[in-house]
Structures are given as C-alpha cells and as structure tokens.
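Q: How do we represent a protein-ligand complex in a form that can be generated token by token?
A: Start from the inputs.
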Amino acid sequence: FFFSLLKRKKEAKKEKSSPTLVLHGNVPHEDYTSTKIPRRGEQAAAAAVTLPFLQLKFGRKVSGGLLSLGKSAVAISAGRRADSPHFCMVYNLLLKRKRIFSIIKYENLFEDVYAFRACHVSEHVRCRTGFRLQREENTMKTITVHASQTYPIWIGRGLLGQCGTYLKQQTKAQTAAVITDDHVDCYYGDIVTKSLEENGFRTIKFVFPHGEASKCSKTLNQIYDFLCENNITRTDCLVALGGGVVGDITGFAAATYLRGLDYLQIPTSLLAQVDSSVGGKTAIDLTGGKNLVGAFKQPVAVLCDLDTLHTLPKLFLADGMGEVIKYGMIRDEKLFTLLEQHTLETVSEVMDEIVPTCIDIKRDVVEHDEFDTGERMILNFGHTLGHAVESYYHYETYTHGSAVAAGMCMMTRATCTPELYVRLCDCVKAYDLPTEVDAPVAELVPLCGNDKKRASASLRFIVCETIGRAEIRSMPFTEFAAWMGGVDA
Ligand code: GLY
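Then emit the structure tokens for the protein with glycine bound:
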C-alpha cells in the first residue's frame, strides 16, 4: 500500500510538472487534406494559424498536421503509412525579427498511429516526450441574442473550418454566397468555402478591394448584379466574411436584395467581432458621410473565430481595442481593470475572455433597444467627437477605433474628474491609441453636427462619470459648441 501511494504521488508530481499542450478541436486525422504552405514568412504563419487541422507540408522532409495554436504550435506528421512514426515539432509562432518559425523541439512524439489517434478521442494523452496533450473541447461559447430575430453568436477557436456545419443548423439555403475582401479572401476564403461545400452548400464568392472606400453604392450594385447573375433566390443565404466593411455592406445587401434574405456574419477583425457583426446594423457610406444609408437586419448567426485575430496587423488590433475600452467604460469596470493590466503586446493572452465579455454587453444593450431609440446610444460613447475626428481627417489619418479613443478622452476631460481622465488616458495609451488629436476642438465641434445622434437642434452625447456607467445627455447644439470649444482654453 505504501509503495502504491508513493507511486501515485510520484505520478501526480510528474503529471503536474509536465508541460501541457492544448489541442483545439477533435477532427480525426483521416480527414486532413493536403495543403502546401511556404516554410517561412507571413504567409506561412497565416496558413499555420488558419489551417489548424489540415496537413501541412514543410519542404520535402516532413509533413504534418498543425494541432495546437497560440504562442507555440504542435505539428504532427501524418505519415504515409498507417504505422509510421509520428513526429512532434513545436514551433515558436511569435513574430520576432520576421522569422516566424523556429523549431524548438523536434522529437518522435507518439509510439504509433494508435497513440497518435488517441489524442483525438481522449481528454488527456501523455506522449513520449512527457508532454501532456489536452484536447480543448467545449470551450466554444454561445451567446444567444433575443432581438426581432433570435440568433446564436458562436465564439471559439478553429471555428472557420467548421463554419458549414454551423451554418447548416441555421438555414435551409442551398447556395451560400460568400462576400469578402481581397485581404481576407487570401487568408480565409478557401477554408470557408471548403467547409460550406463539405456541408452540402453550393458556394459562390464575390471579392472586392479591402478598405472603407469599398463600402459604397458602386460595390453594393456589383454585389446585387453578382447575386442576380448567379440566380440567388430568397431562400439562399449570404456569408459576410471579413471586417466591419464586409459585414456592413453584406448585411445591407441581405436586407435589401429580393426584399431580404438570410446572412451569416463571420467577423475576422476585433472591431467586427466585438461590435459591428452583432446587433443587425447594416449600412453603406455616401460621399456626405459614413453609414448614411442602411437598415436593421439581424444575421441568422455570428461565428467568431478568435484564431483569425492572429493574422490581424497591430494597427487593426488597436482599432478594435478602442471599442473594447469603450465597453469597459460604459458597462464593466472589471473589464476595464483587466484592460489596465495589459497592453497591445499582451492583450492576446486574454482575448478569450475579452471578446465574449464585450459581445455579451452588446447583446444586452441590443436586446433592450434594438432599433437605437434610447439605451443603444450608450454604445456611441466617444463616437460623437470620434466621428468628427474621422471626418476632419477625411477618414485617412485615424482608424475608427483610434478616433473613438480620442473622442472618449476628450469627452471625459470635459465632463469628469481629472483622476478618471488620467486613468482612461493611461489605458488608451497602453493600446497605442491617441488621447487627443491636433485638430482644434472649435473646428471639430461643427462636424459633430453631422452625427446621426443629433436630434433637431439638440445634440445627444454619452458621458461616463464613473467607470462602468454611461449616461445619455442632451444639449442644444450651440451650447455644446461653446462648452466643448471652451475645453481647449
Ligand atoms: N455600433 C453601435 C451600435 O451597434 O449601435
């Protein structure tokens, strides 16, 4: 008895000390398909991140499937013969001096193919190197929005490759028309269409140039023509694959083409995941301003694959963080405190917590005021001045999130205690976002008049005197101009 106790203790200690590698998903390795990817460079990293369960070929020597993502990744050779040994390579996926892959371990991982397969079916598998492999299952979160249409938001990792399975649950459509931009298409176009086709959808794809300039009537008309040429009927569906621009214009096409058809949102930017893909606001821009023509049209579902954030350039991550900080300010002090503990460099570590938190706040606000006549306006904290900043600089100098960050700081400086202002500024700076802009406030204020929240001669704006609590205020426009103008003095 004594010896068995000692043995158990020893095993428990070993168990504790062995490093754990988390496997995302549980796709049987027989389902892997062969995809050639470059050995190095950004494309290699993107492919590695986006093809978690596909067989990767690293040059001539080794082929393998990438099983785990994050700061390090495990690639396992698929082997030509069922009994061939399976190797493990741990790649450091951190982007350091442009060298993306550096092999830090390359060892025979499994005894045989059975052990290799075991990692797909059991919770914990210890492999030869002492690594404890833990399959990450059921980590996908579902948030259900109860608006004029009830729909799920799925949040997790490695979901893109299963989007067809998910979409099938939500629609009877036979054809899925994927609408995306050229950047996103390079990264995720194939994985999405493949999954849709595997699940019985006929797929067609429309790709337009990335950027805000495409969110216009010209692109919209091209989308309509494309849908018409491909005989898309009201019982088919659209798939918005991309950031805010793709989501907004696809949603508007879905709201209007044939008087409305289903659409699925697959947001691939942080801003789209935490904000624009949720809540059913769809729109295009006019020369006179952003989002001036639009409709409320809820999607049939939103699929948020957090792995897509790995391919997001830092500038776009910061852009999304502007909206994330906003959620902390308007509704959630705990979230704000978490953000204070991180920076743009480290925030990815807590993305699995941040994204669902923000989405849940948005869900709650949308459920209370789907059509933006009251409470939903709190989502526009920082936006009144933010929109003015974007417009002043002709939408070229500041991203939406950075303009919102500056707008939040400027509004807080005018309405709150210096302590709160400093706290917000410190947080904003940690995410490489601006706390102010060079444009004189006196020149920004008239541009606030274009804000959609201006009701007749009164301007409504949002103030957060306490972190986590937002208030809608209203002021005659002329008074607001004098009041904000005085801020600069
Ligand atoms: N992006 C603000 C809203 O959805 O109301």
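The first helix runs from residue 2 to 17. The CA atoms of residues 50 and 188 lie 7 Å apart.
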